[in-house]
Amino acid sequence: MKHYSLVCFFAILSLFFWSCKRGQTVISESSKKEVVKSIFAQHYPEFNPGDLKERLKEVVSTDSIIAPFYAHTSYTPIWVHDTLDTKNLAELIELLNDVDKHGLSNDCFTSTEIAAITDSISSKLYGEDLNTIYSKIIHLEQSATKAVAKYVTGMRFGFLNPKDIYGKKLYDIDLLKPDSTYTVSLYEEMKENPIKAMLESHPTDSIYRKLQEEYSRLANLSDTMFQRIVMGSSNYRLGSKGKNISAIANRLILTGEYTPDPNSRDSLHSELNEELLAAINLFRIRNSYLEEKEVGLLTINALNRPIEYYLNTIKANMERYRWKRSKQEHDKHIEVNVPAFMLVASDKRNDSLLLISRVCVGSIRNKTPLMTSDLAYMNLNPTWNIPSSIAKTEVAVLQKKDPTYIKRKNMKLYKGGKEVDPESIDWSKINTSKFSYIVRQQPGPSNSLGLIKFMFNNSFSVYLHDTPSKATFNRKNRAVSHGCIRVQKPFDLAVFAMYPVAEIYKDRLLYSVGMSVETKEAKKLLKEEKLKKLPDIINIPADNKISLAIDYRTAFCYPKDKALYYADDIYEYDELILEELDKI
Hints:
Elements: H1 39-43, H2 49-60, H3 67-72, H4 86-96, H5 111-122, H6 130-157, H7 162-166, E1 171-172, H8 180-192, H9 194-200, H10 206-219, E2 236-237, H11 243-255, H12 274-286, E3 294-295, H13 297-303, H14 307-322, E4 332-337, E5 342-347, E6 350-362, E7 370-380, E8 384-386, H15 388-401, H16 405-408, E9 411-415, E10 418-420, E11 438-441, E12 452-456, E13 464-465, E14 479-481, E15 485-487, H17 490-498, H18 505-512, H19 520-527, E16 537-539, E17 546-551, E18 555-556, E19 565-566, H20 573-581
Helix pairs in contact: 2-6, 4-5, 4-9, 5-6, 6-9, 8-9, 10-14, 14-20, 17-18
């Protein structure tokens, strides 16, 4: 996997750098007072900074990665002047050895080599030959400078390119990238103070910091602290007792979902009571599972996940949160998190206007693409122009099995622009793989798009929509669609989209699609035949823009909620990120 602008050449290991903390005094070129020479100056009295600069220019001019930087500094070294800058080098090594705090492997950078060279120079292990010393210092300059540039750029833009991971066919989110303006700015920062540049590159996003905190907390736990929970012959219910209930309680105590009553008679927590069930449901909610009144295999398997599962999830999402979208969010914004099967709509101008809705997303076979866009319009009573792939693999196949299928589903066939009666076709002779009819499902309660859809510009022909299959929202795994996103609360989303509107607006929406109105005012107007229907196409006003992001995050936070939530990696994208992070 290519880094945006840098290449990693060496491995990084922890090394105690004893010489970094040694005090030193730089030889003053402007003062005639006698000063204490640094260790470096004592070892290498013939060292000439001017000679080093000329040799550095000769070597790095052929290094495509850092040659532009040193040209920017007029080939002035940044890690050695008239003495070796052991203080900055020590801080550099410490930062590189702490990259695990950012979910990165200690093998990402060359801190071992940097420490070894610095230590050897300070200890005079290379002897007194200046040619050797110049060569080693130049190599140190190259390694340390590359490490800083890679570190800073990676922290600010991410170490991976998601379009290389997910593929361009499934990822259309434009991200901020290092450009020429950034490069010049980076050069100035590194020239002035490379350590400060590294420290100021750390992401400050509140969710990123929450991920770091949770990663540190979990890293201090051990799988040996967890007692494996065994599934019984039937689901555990209120009143169930035994060591497995105790194991569940202890698991939730360790991870913070359960704080037992100290006055409880059940000191072993061996009974599934209301308090423990509430903690189990909190665990389920934080793992994007549905609340239940009993405990089955799905929850047991989730409780038995090792600490490494959560650590890896956080690692992958730290990288995701280092990616910065270039498209600006409007005040009104809709965020769909695919693996969590959730939609959040919010308005920066109105803190109380917040909508959270369950959604269904694309199946593993028909993955929902990731993208950003703006909501364009809403379509009431939509017609579904069924894609040819679905017409071939589903409609034609089901029609061959059941000659009433097309009519029952309120569909119509077209060929050459003319409607064709399905009963006029000998379906036994139809080759479904070559099925060439256009199929449209007419508006109505049975339409697969439901009664409303939300349209936005994208190259994938996907959209948000209602659905007649309401029961699907009560499933844990809601990756069931052909790629579009089904919304559990479509009319609430429509009100959000048009807000601010009169309270009766939702009733007008419902009335327009043939549903029952809700408020007394609407019922009165309906009785008086004064309730007006809305047009089938409702454009989003230009002064009320709504940004939309469909993204993939398996560790995340909800607005106004400090807790960290997890979602199953339904498309196995976390695995791809972790594999590529190991290669940088």
